[in-house]
Write a structure and sequence with these properties.
With 376 residues, this protein is mainly alpha-helical. Helix content is 82%, strand content 0%. The longest helix is centred in the first third of the chain and has 33 residues. 62% of the residues are buried.
Length: 376
């Protein structure tokens, strides 16, 4: 009941979350094939993914200004640009063009991410209820559906460029439903003693840790199952698909749980669950056990990032909300590209199981950060 009400209230940004999920689910399932086509090792591929962070961080810093300029059509324009950018990495013939393509994708992704999270935060303030988990769950739904479908597409030997084109077409159609009036905050004034620096920093670090853990599983789980455990293409694609499915379940459940417990308590428990799943995925002897591990990881990590974004939205005045969320998003979403790079280097020298053990240790950092946030 809580979930359905939340999705109805925030139905337009929820579609934007699906749009972003469709892209990353398809991309994650095709990582082994894209990497093989480029002919690069794990460390180099991780560095190429870091190019995404360049575009992402740039657009996130510009997002508050773009939000004021684009207004009600901001999410629409962002998703259309996202759809167009998705075509580029699928047809990139070499490492250089792939890196440039991922930078462009990052710019479109960053803009869309900030605007859709800002719209949800505005609705939370308007309706005085948590909405972030339900919306991030829709990202996971789109991600899981796209990853499963892409696994079958790989089995059918559909090339990455063609698969990415199909997803881009779907995103373009969904963008028609993303027109959403923006609340006018021009007359709002800041309250309190200055700009809330430390809540933004701590929330940003919590989101960073969560998204780095999530990104490790999204980017490397398919390759881990196929290369380390000897799985087929469809079995490899089930790694990110399982993550997406359980993240959707976790976020829908988190929507109800957040009505009963404080955000900080939920983050601490969820962190312990995520670390357990990452360890199990790293030590899995078969693809089946890896699915269990990635599923547990997804359940835990699913709620940490959304709650971090929700906390910062509650800690700032209305007229600073988009700017604050963009700053937290810059820190947090950079984790999606720092993690593949760092874990790629770990994998190159110590193997993918070691990379997932590092992700487990990394996720535990969210606990002391959350405890510090509670003391503010």
């Amino acid at each position: 009941m809580y979930v359905l009400q939340a999705l109805f209230v925030s139905r337009r940004p929820a579609i934007a979350f699906v749009v972003v999920g469709l892209f990353w689910g398809c991309f994650a399932a095709y990582v082994p094939e894209v990497k093989a086509r480029l002919g690069v090792n794990d460390a180099t591929f991780g560095l190429l993914l870091l190019c995404n962070a360049v575009g992402l961080v740039s657009s996130m810093f510009l997002a508050p200004r773009l939000d004021r300029i684009l207004g009600a059509r901001g999410m629409q324009i962002g998703s259309v640009l996202f759809a167009v950018s998705f075509l580029l990495p699928g047809f990139a013939p070499n490492a250089l063009t792939f890196g440039i393509s991922m930078a462009i994708v990052g710019a479109a992704s960053g803009m869309t991410d900030v605007l859709m999270n800002a719209r949800v935060s505005e609705l939370e303030e308007l309706y005085k209820r948590p909405l972030m988990n339900a919306n991030h769950a829709m990202f996971s739904v789109g991600y899981a559906i796209s990853a499963v479908a892409s696994g079958f597409a790989r089995e059918a030997q559909i090339a990455p460029g063609m698969a990415f084109s199909y997803v881009a077409l779907i995103i373009f159609v969904l963008s028609a439903f993303l027109y959403m009036p923006v609340r006018d905050t021009s007359n709002d004034t800041a309250t309190g003693a200055g700009y809330p620096f430390w809540p933004i920093v701590l929330c940003g670090l919590i989101v960073l840790v969560a998204f780095m853990t999530e990104a490790t599983a999204e980017t490397w789980s398919a390759l881990h199952i196929e290369r380390t455990l000897g799985g087929r293409a469809a079995e490899g694609a089930m790694g990110p698909a399982m993550l997406g499915i359980t993240m959707a379940v976790g976020r829908f459940s988190g929507q109800a749980v957040s009505q009963m417990f404080s955000d900080t308590k939920v983050i601490i428990v969820a962190t312990l669950i995520a670390a357990t799943g990452a360890v199990l995925g790293a030590l899995a002897p078969t693809p089946l056990w890896a699915y269990v591990g990635f599923g547990i990881l997804g359940l835990g990590v699913s709620v940490i990032g959304p709650l971090g974004l929700a906390l910062v939205g509650k800690s700032v005045p209305n007229n600073l909300r988009t700017e604050a969320i963009s700053r937290v998003a810059v820190m947090g979403f950079a984790g999606f590209f720092l993690a593949p790079t760092l874990m790629g280097m770990v994998s190159e020298f110590h193997g993918l199981p070691a990379a997932f053990l590092c992700a487990a240790a990394l996720s535990l950092m969210a606990i002391p950060l959350t405890l510090l946030l509670r003391r503010l």
